[in-house]
Write a structure and sequence with these properties.
This protein is an alpha+beta fold. It is built from 15 helices and 8 strands. Strands 1, 4, 5, 6 and 7 form a 5-stranded mixed beta sheet that branches. Strands 3-2-8 form a 3-stranded antiparallel beta sheet, with no helix packed on it. The chain starts with a helix and ends with a helix.
């Protein structure tokens, strides 16, 4: 375990480096508030800064404060999140805003327990929000920090393993200073993001190069330990691109939880099901299959999804469905020039864009 003197030396070297080389002009560092920091921290979970910045700026233009976000329809929130991935973050962000407005009169809470009780906010994110926006003394342990600490002290074991994670939390707590907490928090995240990177770390310019144990032993690439490998399962689905004569595409809203929860997408059936029969039974539609497109794979954190797009021509509704009022909140005929603000998963957006290009150019699918 680090001594008090070692922790002080670590902090001094880190803050000296940060003052000269750290990131000081990120969008959420300007006009800093708990709300702005909170949104950035959620967006930055498992996503790089360069990817987040345009999304963040657009999000802030649309929702400049918690009350605006809380009052917005979830479809509008997911629409702005389209392409950023991990859509549960957007749903939790929206739910959080509503809770904060209801329970805290629109003011972000100051107590760590209250922050951690909010949807989608764990200990590290809560600590980062309070440390960065309010300079409160709370440690963080995101992926960048784990990597820095594992290399600096040669911590063995996969960092997500409970006993290893608890050890890292104790080290993070010991290193967090009483003064300049906000700067320290940003600094250690910056160090991991820009110097102590996952691959090809820039050890020669690292402020810890003289005291880093992995550097000393020429074992930087060994740390942190990788997750024990397991074979990811593969699932498959057919996405039905049902188009009508008005050049509209039929979309359905997915359930609020689960994969792509709350997003809009194409109807799906299994590889073994007949498309024409499935559409008749499940959608009440008379259709004509125009053929399959090339299969492609979308990878999630815990499985692969093989997607086969099938172009389908809508003919009419089955007689028994013609006079029924369909639930417009859960399905829609969508046109690419529509003003509807809907959230799409990346594969759905990709296929929609391809459909638009095909229609405009007359190219074959």
């Amino acid at each position: 375990m680090l001594t008090k003197q070692q922790a002080q030396r670590f902090n001094q070297n880190l803050l000296k480096w940060f003052d000269q080389y750290g990131r000081h002009d990120l969008p959420w560092q300007k006009n800093m508030t708990s709300y702005r920091v909170w949104v950035s921290e959620i967006m930055l979970q498992q996503t790089q800064v360069k990817t987040v910045i345009p999304y963040y700026l657009n999000f802030m233009r649309q929702f400049p404060n918690i009350k605006k976000l809380a009052a917005a329809p979830i479809d509008e929130v997911l629409h702005l999140w389209t392409g950023l991935g991990y859509y549960a973050r957007a749903r939790n962000l929206h739910q959080c805003a509503q809770v904060i407005c209801e329970q805290y009169k629109g003011r972000f809470p100051n107590q760590i327990e209250q922050v951690m009780a909010l949807p989608g906010i764990g200990q590290s994110t809560a600590g980062a929000i309070l440390a960065l926006s309010k300079n409160l003394m709370f440690p963080i342990l995101d992926g960048n920090v784990k990597r820095v600490l594992c290399r600096y002290l040669k911590i063995e074991g996969w960092p997500e393993k409970n006993d290893v994670k608890q050890k890292l939390w104790k080290i993070a707590e010991r290193l967090t200073p009483g003064l300049r907490v906000a700067d320290y928090t940003q600094a250690i995240m910056d160090l991991g993001a820009t110097v102590c990177t996952r691959t090809q770390p820039s050890c020669d310019v690292c402020p810890m190069k003289r005291t880093c144990q992995a550097k000393r032993d020429n074992e930087v690439q060994l740390f942190p330990f990788s997750k024990p490998k397991t074979k990811q399962p593969v699932r498959s689905t057919k996405m039905l691109l049902i188009c009508n004569q008005a050049q509209q595409i039929y979309l359905e809203k997915r359930p609020p939880s689960g994969i792509w929860g709350g997003l809009w997408g194409f109807p799906e059936c299994t590889e073994s099901e007949d498309v024409i029969d499935w559409c008749a039974k499940k959608l009440g539609m008379i259709v004509k299959s125009k053929g399959k497109q090339k299969q492609f794979r979308h990878t999630f954190s815990h499985f692969h999804l093989d997607i086969t797009p099938v172009t389908v021509e809508f003919i009419d509704f089955e007689p028994q469905f013609k006079n029924q009022i369909r639930e417009q909140a859960e399905s829609v005929w969508y046109h690419h020039e529509s003003d509807l603000k809907l959230g799409f998963a990346t594969p759905v957006k990709r296929l929609l864009n391809k459909l638009v290009v095909t229609k405009l150019t007359g190219a074959k699918n």
